[in-house]
């Protein structure tokens, strides 16, 4: 898992996953994790992009 640093702290990350016809966005920020489901890929990508910007990340992962 790329989001776990050597000192045990979790680095922020945003991941987009497609499964069973739905799109899921997983956001990890510190000790909080949130997963949201979307029916449309475009909505999931827009949400992921907003979270990426909020967290100051260079990119989000598409798994």
Describe the structure.
This protein has a domain at 13-55. Strands 3-2-1-4 form a four-stranded mixed β-sheet, with helices on one face. The model has no long low-confidence stretch (mean pLDDT 92). It has one helix spanning 41-55, and strands at 13-19, 22-29, 32-38, 61-62. It is an alpha+beta fold.
Strand content bin: 35-45%
Tell me about the largest β-sheet.
4 strands, mixed
Report strand order across the widest sheet. 3-2-1-4
Helix percentage range: 10-25%
| Shape verdict | globular
Q: Top keywords for this entry?
A:
alpha+beta; 4 strands; 1 helix; four-stranded mixed β-sheet
What's the layout of helices and strands?
Layout: E1 13-19, E2 22-29, E3 32-38, H1 41-55, E4 61-62
Parallel strand pairs: 1-4
Antiparallel strand pairs: 1-2, 2-3
